[in-house]
Amino acid sequence: MNEGLIPRRYAKALYIVSKERGEDKAMYSLMKNLIGCFVSVPELNDTLNNPYISVADKSALIRTACEHGEKADSLLDDFIRLLVDNKRIGFTRLIAYAFVDIYRKENHIYKVDVESAVPLASQETARLKELISRHLKGGIMEYEMSVNPSLIGGFTVRVGNEKVDASVSNELKQLRLNLISK
Description:
alpha+beta; 4-stranded mixed β-sheet; 8 helices; 59% helix
C-alpha cells in the first residue's frame, strides 16, 4: 500500500468534516501541536506502532499530544476512534502532516523558515518579512526563525520548494566551485 495515499485520504476527510463543523482552525492548531510532539519526541511514532501498547493508551497519548495546552473537542475523539476502528493509528503522524499541508493550501498560508547565522534584530526581521510578503504577493505567513552558526553570516529563507541562500557559507562554496571549474 502507498503510505502517502492513506494518510492523505484521512487528512482530507478530517479537513472536510472539521470545515463543515467550523472547527477547521482549531483542528489545524491541534494537528500542529501533534506534529510538534512528533518532532520533539521521535519515539512517539514507534510507540503508536508498538503492538504491545494498548489502543486505549495510544488514544490517550494522541489526545494529550494534540491538546498541549488547548482543549480538544468531540471531533478529535471521533477522529481517534476512526483511526482505532480502522487500525490506522500508526498513520497518525503522516495524517497530521497531510492535514496541516491541506489546511495551509486551502487557506493560502505559507510556512516560511528563516535560518540565520546569528539572531536577527527586530528591524532586520521586519524588513525580511516585508520582502518575503512582497515576493509571495499576499497570503498568510507563518514564520519559523532559527539560528545556525555554520552559515558563518547571512541567512537562508525557505518557502515550500523555494530556497534563497544569502549566507556566507554558500558564497564560499560558490567561490570554491568557480575556482575548481577553471
